[in-house]
Amino acid sequence: MAKQYKDRFVVTVNGQRKTIRNKSLFSSTGTRSQQRLIRSITNLLEELEIAKEYDLPPTRDALEEVRGISWLNEKCVELGLIPSNCVSTLEELFDFYFEIKFRTWTKRTQENWLNTKRTILEVLDPSAPIRSLTRIDADNLQHDITLLVSDRYKKRLSKGTISKHLGNLRQLFNFAVKHEFLTKNVFDEISRSGEIRDDHFEINAELSERVLEAMPNSEWRLYFAILRWAGCRKSEPLKLKVGDWEFGHEKNGASYYGRLFIPDAKRKNKSGNYIIKYPPLFQQIEKLLVEHCEMLPEGCEYLFPNIRQLSEGGIHERFTSFLKRKGITVWSSLFNNIRSTRSTEISREYGSVLESRWIGHSEATFKMSYDFDIEADYKVRDTNVTQQSGAGDCTANLVEKVIAEKKRILPDAALCIEYKDQAVPPKGVRHWYRNIGKNRVCQK
């Protein structure tokens, strides 16, 4: 057990006694504050010693107290009582995270994280110790980041961009807690501005037809059809190769949809390969797919060879120009609302389980970011049950139906009652026991 002597602490690590000294602490032990500090350090060392003996991680409270005393932190790391802390500043945390994760990310994810690092370090001091950051700093960051101006577009950052940066920062500090650089994440309670969307817009059937007419060729028409009726992200159709689908078939008199084999842009399996989604090959997609395949040159590997040459920003600009050319007003969150419209439709028609499989996110994400009221939700399905009791003709029709149903089953109910009313002959009485009207008579 850890003990405190006149001028030192003694702990047992791996069966060996180790000494911890600090001259300034034991120089004058007469003050009460110093005595309390010595007792507190003794208790901390005893707790760390027990955790080390039973191969348990130190508690967060103990770890945080030790990290706050620099000389004690260095000595405990040297003795192996607590893990070493190779990261101290915010910039070092970013660099260490990139060193581990950067090679596994796609090029787009790498660009997003580099933008996050550049943006966050404009607001927070790069040399600030990560243990010195508080929830007040997190709140100030959330406000100050909205005042930044983009160098590229010369305007303030959008809600979606701010939401992405704050989400990445949360993830970064969760990583720091997991690796025991910190004991808590001060950014875990800041709200992302884009988590609750208020810009939903339904791409209904009429608007979808107008958009198809605005597309200049079969490649763009098929691209929009897969976005609209398969609910893909705008980068996912570009990974489709020729033959990454199967057509529908009939079996036992029933018709079945074909399937598309679309790599999910955000999910990978344990082997590091993209998870494949299998949304149905809906009729709106199938007819345009056949049309486009007839136009493809021989030996073409990918389904969208020309669109693949554009960047994500280039795709957005081209798509917007096609809409404006036909006089279609460009809606907010252009591609996200196409996806959320189809996600909501599939959820209503096929349920949330298939929606998650086909669209490619969890049910919680769907409810938070994609679900909204569409026109079909307000369609009158049965005029006899649309109003509550005591309201108008619809309820009167419903009451008449209930009365008619009761009249229909009355004869059957009467027969059942009459059958149950027949009495069993008393014991010892033979077959001459009979009924006369309602009075039972026993013939002797």
Could you characterize the architecture of this molecule?
The protein has 444 residues and is mainly alpha-helical. It folds into four domains: 3-79, no CATH class; 90-178; 205-378, Intergrase catalytic core (hpI Integrase, Chain A, Orthogonal Bundle), CATH 1.10.443; 392-442. Helices cover 49% and strands 10% of the residues. It has 16 helices and twelve strands. The chain has helices at residues 23-26, 32-53, 60-67, 70-79, 90-101, 107-123, 135-144, 159-178, 205-214, 218-230, 283-295, 312-325, 334-350, 352-360, 363-370, 392-421; strands at residues 3-4, 9-13, 16-20, 245-246, 249-251, 254-256, 258-260, 262-268, 274-277, 280-281, 433-436, 439-442. A hairpin with a 5-residue loop joins strand 8 (262-268) and strand 9 (274-277). Helix 13 runs antiparallel to helix 14 (352-360). The longest helix is centred in the last third of the chain and has 30 residues, at 392-421. It is elongated, with a radius of gyration of 36 Å. The model is unreliable at 385-399 and 429-444 (pLDDT under 50).
